[in-house]
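INTERNAL AUDIT FORM
Audit reference: QA-55
Scope: verify that the stored structure record matches its stored sequence.
Auditor: D.O.
Record contents follow.
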Amino acid sequence: MQPDDSYLRSVAESTARAVAAAEPVRSEFDGADAAVHADVQRWLTEHSADLVGLSRDLHAHPEEGFAEHRSVRQVAELLKRHGFDAQVGVGGLDTALLATVGSAGPHVAVLAEYDALPGIGHGCGHNIICSAGVGGFLGAATAVGAAGGRVSLVGTPAEEGGGGKEHLARAGVFDDVDAVVMLHPFSHDIAAHPFLGRRQVEVVFRGIAAHAAAQPFMGRNALDAVVATYQGVAALRQHIPSTDRVHGIITDGGQRANVVPERAAVLFYFRSADPGSLRDLARRIEAIAHGAASMTGCGVELTWDQNPGYLPIRHNDTLAARWAHHQSGRGRTSLPRGVVPEYITGSTDLGNLSYRMPAIHPMIALEGESLSLHTAEFAAAAGSETGDRAVLDGAIGLACTAVDYLADERLRTAVHEEFEAAGGAVDVASFLE
């Protein structure tokens, strides 16, 4: 039986009305000289075929996280054709990439993702993220001489659950970077859309096997502990913020029905829009698991975050407004936060960097306001002409925003004042322990 879609249709209608009435995001800063922006746009337009070609190539050859060997080679080869040497394998990750241009001074990094999803390929549009990021770096590189400072391209593997950015941060790749910029394709143009923090925990219960008919009283049922935990988490959902999410699967429920299961396991993902709430959710799920172990007489072991957890994004609105300014020149209206329902979202490891330095993660629209991430329909759009347009528009937006950051000291000061007012840098690794 198919779910009733009346709620989704109502949301779509109300969102369309809100979008039509919304005021675009505006910036109070000047950024770099208009002539510099014009030169960047001209260069990227002239070389747009290279960027679109990269996007289409990645789309046709999707690779999952930490295995993006062909993808990162394609990026490195494109950079080399334009005169830039890239290091592949930085930060201890075989498919990470780093290229830098410029001298001492402020340092902004443009980020590229290129991992795909199993089964549906680039259903999250990372081919667009990568190609626009490469273009953003190349376009900004043409203006570094006029703007000063440095710009880097950082290829960050395995965003889809692998936490590549956190691995690279812990390896020191971002230690001398002052701000990071990237984009994400979506159903709407949005200057700053919330992404949730995300952690995962595997809970394994150990009981005592026994014949389920002859001597059940001699057993301790690990599956009962899993079921109690699953039900406890289901009850918890009533008492968490509406922005939070918890979802899980039973990964081991025993082997035979006539044997009391001595081992059973459940895997949970949980998400929150607030770092503090994310940490509280972890404590509450842990308490539920230990309670279930006590109820059933089982032992319990919790394994947290096989790969690093993700914090929610802390957006830098000052810098995002410069992105919105440049997108308006491409005929796009970047919406402020809250116009598109904020619960239509996911999680990203960019959140971890956003608590270390100012960061932006604007959304760039593909055609079709009903498009949903991580679907075959989104993958098709990411490899179509609408995806091609997003590559060029996004590259121009990232390049010009990066150059603004380097060239405009007043803007740069405001960006960092906003970051400090929001709490400043956080020891992310310790926070997630």
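Auditor finding: record pair retrieved intact. Residues 188 and 365 are 4 Å apart (CA to CA).
Action required: none
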